Amino acid sequence: MVSNNNNQQHHVVYLTGGNGFLGSMIVKLIEEDDRVSKVYCPVRAKKDQSAKQRFTEAFQSFSKCEYVDPSDDLPEDTTHVILNAYNTRFKEPIGKKLSENVTPMVRILDQCESRSGQIQGITVVSTAYVQPPAPYRAPAGGRIPFFFGEAPQLSPFGLYNDVIDLYNKEGEEDITSVLPQGVTVHPYYESNDYAFSKHIMENLIHERYANLPIAIVRPSMIYPTRDGSHGQGSKAGIPLFMSIAPHPVMLAPRCEGQLNYVFVEDSAADCLDGALTEASLDHPIVMSTSRAETSAMDMLRYWAPEVKRVKTDNKVRRDMVRRWELTKIRVAAGARKAKLIDAMYENYDFFMSNTWLLEAKHDTAPLEFMECGRKFIKIMSEDSKPKKKKANPLKKLRRKGKSGSNTRVAVTGKDRFEGNVMSDLSGQTLASTRSFDSLARQESFRA
User: Fold this and answer.
1) Which of these, 18, 29, 7, 14, lies nearest to 270 by C-alpha position?
2) Model's pTM, two decimal places?
């Protein structure tokens, strides 16, 4: 929990991924926490914005935030570190995933190691779905053994280095190229490179940084805040599902599995407390989860009961509905939009068809999460309503013909396509091209 006592301790936090969905909530909690006097937020430049422009846009309303270049060393006064930045695409070459996400983490942890005694606590954000689905149950303490079939114990750090070396030299992206002959990857990790890379990351940390005070926080599926306000505009995970729920897409998701959820404010508090209070040389596993579990179908139906979705475990029927849906989207919005929804099905099918035996931390009722979705959609709908503009009397004059009567303006098919809404053949409403692009721009559909 966030502390607001008057005994200020002036901790200084270095936070990666501070401008993301979870990271921005961590920043909000730090702003209210008397234990922390400053938070360094490294931000990278993008092709259309400089790093400092992005920093100002994300953090200008927070008094404790200070900009730092991601390539610079840790500031000298840093006392705590929260490693939250991670590309959450499910399906991406493992060499690329480790190189872009774990390598920067290793660089920071090496610096922490060189400052013996100064760094008092570190949080590394992982995922609850780093463990395989049922019937697998994590052992006491939560550490998931680093194993590949019946192979002898492999060195996580050694395997990481082999994969990175091969990726840097040859662009090789198949981890089987560096495994001993006959060694196979756990079937679960074959379907999810994101979870596999987190599994390697966790075990690498246990092996390589045993002398650092670290807590590993494992969030499950992260919801917006309870009032539905935080996460508006996010194009990943649960906020993405909430954004598309009122539209006739994802009409036949898998429904056999039960997913676990946690509110973003609870998970952010777990991450902050992990660094400030729970980190130790034992590397405790903090399960940022709840007792609430439900299927994706029940979730979508509760949020948007007006959209008819098909709940079935019959593969033939499900595939038929999906083909029909993708055809409608292709006709109404184009092939690219249909491809994006198809990729969303592919990325989430495994999660939605399995159940995980996760230890619950937060005692949150399932109905709280369902209601959060409705609040989120209500806020989203209100924000998207066009604002009324004052009528311009000159505009009417410009549209008058010589006889003084208003001329008729032809509406082309292109105008209809780019208008506010498009209707599919079922009579349901599909978002406009512009709206649809904003909801499904990223091919990854991250969790």
Assistant:
1) 29
2) 0.83
